[in-house]
## 1
Amino acid sequence: MTQRPAGAATRDPGVLRLALTVPEGVPIELELATRGERLTAFLIDLMLLMLVGLALALVIGAAWDGALEYQDGWLLAIIALLVFFLRSGWFLTLEIRGRGRTPGKRLAGLRVVDAAGGPLRVHALVARNLMREVELWLPLTLLLAPETLLPGASAGVQLLSGLWVLGLLFFPVFHPAGARLGDLVAGTRVVRAPKAVLLPELGLRKTDAPARVFTSIQLSIYGIFELQMLEKALRIQDQAGDRRETLIQVSRLIRKKLTWDGDAHDRDAEPFLRDFYAALRRQLEERLRLGRRKKDKHDKRG
């Protein structure tokens, strides 16, 4: 995994790129989200979170008022507990269900990914979201209401605490890639989500041998994103020293996923991949004409 300033192919000057190898065995580069994009996504989620919290507080307050006649201490305690679980569970639940995307990230075109290129694990999302308690909510509490955490503390203690929490709060500003402390702990990064669109068709087989035939079940495993990854692998320049090894690795992974029982020789990796690419593209295009768009292998709607 490498991070370097964007080159000529980058959409925006100065945007960093994350180079990794996805589980399909294809090396890719993704654009890291800028600090402004991440802030925009967070503010959208924060507004939605506040609206949901306000609605729940009103409902519970009304029910509590009628049942226990203004026992304010208990009411405030329950609201505080509700706020804690709501703010902790909002991002975690939505990122798990959205495979790294909350409503704010979806609107901003962002996604959380594994920094090493592997699948996004639940424990990584738990770690990065629990760290938000230390990075954001604790600093805000100490800055806005220090007596709730440090009752009776001296001015010196409050000053040192304020400097500490400000350092955590502004950590992404000084990190070269704009990563949160939670991203470093969890091994994740926030990137611009690539759009799943069919690219211009790749050239077909370089041989006159009969094309391999794949079943509809085998072709339904993958979607547009995986087709793009396969195309990137097939478009690797011939002079690239690792081209053959990359194609062999990708071919092995796809054959295993398809439980392919036909020819399974590494020397046929490129012909096999070109046959699979052509067949998968035809099926995806046919489904698009029918209004069924399968974005990736996780998308069950296609």
Note: The beta strands are 2-5, 16-21, 27-31, 110-114, 188-192.
## 2
Amino acid sequence: MRILLWHVHGSWTTALVQGRHEYLLPVLPDRGPDGRGRAQTWDWPANAIEVTPAEAAETDVDVVLLQRPEELDGLCERWLGGRRPGRDVPAVYVEHNAPQGRIAEMRHPVADRRDLTLVHVTHFNDLFWDAGATPTRVIEHGVVDPGYRYTGELPRAAVVINEARRRGRVTGTDLLPRLNGQVPLDLFGMDAGGLGGMENPPQRALHERMARRRVYLHPIRWTSLGLSLIEAMHLGMPVVALATTEAPDAVPREAGVVSTDVGVLAAAVRRLVADPGEARERGRAARQAALARYGLERFLGRWDRLLTEVTA
């Protein structure tokens, strides 16, 4: 099966392209948002293939995976030489994000579109978005297993936030000074500079650095379930997380501490940093939970079933 999709979310796409299909990735000379092509900091297999606008227009495509409103509003049609997603080519819209705004107004951009299927990556997102009559599914995240790498040798907490300064309260960046006084925090992610963090390393190096820290701290207030949280669990790290969006359902009690009380989170970070034995035990439980729920085989199997259904 030939699947056209834009490189929008690198970690999610990394999992998807591990499947058995051909994944066609639009590429432009500037490698901007509408043509990033293959990833530069993730390892992608050979079946993730870059295509230019001219190549895409002449290629038989079995299904399109849309991820942004602009892709549905003309971008995809231009790349496909006039073929319209949902009419001329089967289409699935993948929603990665939790909705923003007043709950009564959280209507999805593809609401009441019976010509495509809307896929949410969390049950929380499915609950909060109003899709009207559009057929919807939930296919939870999958992660390429980085292996058990936890050493916890550094009595510090790892935090991963992309664009921490810009996103501010959404990502809980404002909570970091309150928590940083409890134990030292190491902030990773793009645009982490200026906040006591490090620049964004390649994924493999990031995992190695994370796993040396004794605990993973997830201060995100309002976003879809962060893949960095699931990756930390795969690494074997114990988790301390805000009990918001999907996190309470994703992190079992034995894997760490989940609460909306910042004082409870601060105490949990202190305790786990001070007790390597408990940290390691909870980290092992976190890894088992992540493998069972967010394993690659389960993720790809669910996508295969949906793709077979929409292209039948």
Note: The first helix runs from residue 10 to 16.
